[in-house]
Specification:
Layout lengths: L1 E7 L8 E6 L2 E5 L8 H9 L10 E3 L5 H4 L2 H6 L5 E4 L1 H31 L11 H8 L2 E3 L6 E4 L2 E7 L7 E9 L2 E7 L22 E5 L11 H17 L2 E5 L5 H14 L8 E4 L1 H12 L6 H8 L10 E4 L2 H6 L7 E5 L9 H8 L6 E4 L8 H6 L4 E4 L2 E4 L3 E4 L9 H10 L6 E5 L3 H13 L4 E3 L5 E3 L3
Parallel strand pairs: 3-4, 4-5, 5-6, 10-11, 11-20, 12-15, 12-16, 13-14, 13-15, 16-19, 20-21
Antiparallel strand pairs: 1-2, 1-22, 2-3, 7-8, 8-9, 9-10, 17-18
Helix pairs in contact: 4-8
Length: 465
């Protein structure tokens, strides 16, 4: 009998974590960090709502920290099982988790200084680099299409999810009442025709679907206008000698943006301007992308065979040191600065926003979904005053959003994917979406004939799935 308890990314988009119990064994689908308000997310991430030592297996859909970032915390608390992922996910997860551990150290240091002044007890760090070292020894990788029994009676198969390099949908085959049963967890599902990635692969014979719902109520504009809009923004900053600031996740989004700039520069569609990627993590992630070329789509592989590196073009520069990052404050426009994090909740992007959002000639370009209670969401909402490092700053820069660059499938993409699974799907769960988006996706799934669709709340148990 399979029971599922949903803990994270339920009616929200962060902290993915779903615990399955099958014949006395516990399998955890993803184990992500909660992102948002510092105090609330800090408290949530410290509370693991089950006994980590009793988890037998972790199945990791992809490397983004909202899906992977709490795994070392489980290891610190006694998890000793295997972590299954694809090879690129394993490599990307290592750099993401090491970066996360570093940021954890800085966050706890900051919080404890305040608590010391208030006479409060000190917070213990969530995990450190030693915990990441231990975590990486638990990884076991599977290629797409390779089936593996992960606990007695349950087999796991990864398929390409098309979200980021190495991302996977997770197919779990087991038995219910003596009959074969197939569950599919989408993780984060990508769009079709994403730069350098393959389209999401459709699985057949699925009985139960756990699906993300990030954009369950809306469609992205067509991809055709992305290049045109970026061209317009570059022409604007050239004309006004200003700056284009792009918050972007180091893994996936940054590489997509570089890919599009490469296309425009090589065809002479835009003038050559300095494009700085100010994120050491992005440089490491880009090198990992080059290592796993076999996971690219056919077009990108053809480019590479012709010695055309899609992640390199005149004007592109990666900064590494803090001094190099600080020096960007003095760089005059026109200039493009791409920096992490994508939701503006940490990293070097906050410094660039602090120094540049007060100029109405500068552009802030948001390239993906911004969760509630993040600085990125407040910028998208164009709040006139935003807080950065506890200080208030006027938001005078022009804010644009390009959701076509989102790594998430939109309403039509999610619905068409579920429809392509076929008529076998009788039950679905909508996760990884804010309440209205989940409700919209639920209706879409019901409209294509899925009889029972649930939207779990945190901690809710579903038995005999």
């Amino acid at each position: 009998m399979l029971n599922i308890r949903f803990y994270g990314a339920v009616q929200t988009t962060t902290g993915s974590m779903h615990l399955m119990e099958y014949n006395g064994k516990n399998v955890l689908l993803d184990c992500g960090l909660v992102q948002g308000k510092r105090k609330e997310s800090f408290e949530q991430n410290r509370r693991i709502p089950f006994d980590a030592a009793r988890v037998d297996v972790i199945v990791l859909s992809h490397a983004h920290v909202d899906h992977s970032g709490r795994i070392p915390a489980l290891v610190r608390l006694g998890f000793r099982g295997k972590i299954y992922s694809t090879p690129p996910t394993r490599d990307l997860a290592e750099i993401m988790l090491r970066d996360s551990a570093y940021l954890q150290e800085k966050d706890v240091e900051y919080v404890n200084k305040k608590r010391a002044r208030q006479g409060l007890s000190m917070f213990e760090i969530l995990y450190d680099q030693n915990d990441v070292d231990t975590t990486m020894r638990h990884f076991e990788t599977l290629e797409y299409g390779e089936a593996r029994e992960i606990v007695p009676g349950m087999k796991l198969t990864f398929r390409d999810a098309g979200h980021i390099l190495g991302s996977a949908t997770c197919t779990l085959d087991y038995e219910k009442d003596g009959k074969p049963r197939r569950l599919l967890y989408t993780g984060d599902l990508g769009q079709k025709d994403t730069p350098f990635l393959n389209d999401p692969v459709v699985e057949k014979g699925v009985d139960v679907l756990i699906t993300e719902s990030t954009y369950g109520d809306r469609d992205h504009p067509t991809r055709e206008n992305v290049r045109g809009r970026l061209k317009d923004y570059i022409e604007f900053i050239v004309q006004h000698k200003s700056k284009l600031i792009i918050p972007a996740f180091s893994v996936g989004r940054t590489q997509q943006i570089i890919y599009v700039f490469n296309y425009l520069v090589e065809r002479g569609a835009i003038p050559i301007v300095p494009v700085y990627v100010d994120s050491p993590l992005s440089l490491k992630a880009t090198e990992i992308h080059k290592k796993h070329m076999g996971y690219y789509n056919a077009l990108t592989q053809e480019m590479l065979q012709a010695n055309d590196d899609p992640f390199k073009f005149p004007g592109l520069k990666f900064t590494q040191s803090v001094d190099e990052s600080k020096a960007l404050n003095e760089v005059k426009g026109p200039v493009v600065i791409i920096s992490a994090s994508g939701m503006c909740e940490g990293g070097r992007i906050q410094h660039h926003l602090k120094n540049n959002i007060g100029d109405p000639l500068n552009i802030v370009l948001i390239t993906g979904f911004q969760a509630e209670n993040t600085l990125g969401r407040r910028i998208v909402e164009r709040q006139p005053i935003v807080k950065i490092f506890g200080e208030e700053y006027e938001l005078k820069a022009t804010v644009y959003t390009i959701n076509e660059l989102s790594a998430h499938a939109d309403k039509t993409g999610l619905t068409n994917y579920a429809k392509a699974l076929g008529k076998t799907v009788k039950r679905a769960f909508c996760v990884h979406g804010e309440p209205d988006y989940c409700e919209a996706h639920k209706k879409n799934l019901e409209n294509i004939g899925i009889r029972r669709v649930d939207i779990p709340v945190s901690g809710q148990l579903f038995e005999n799935v």
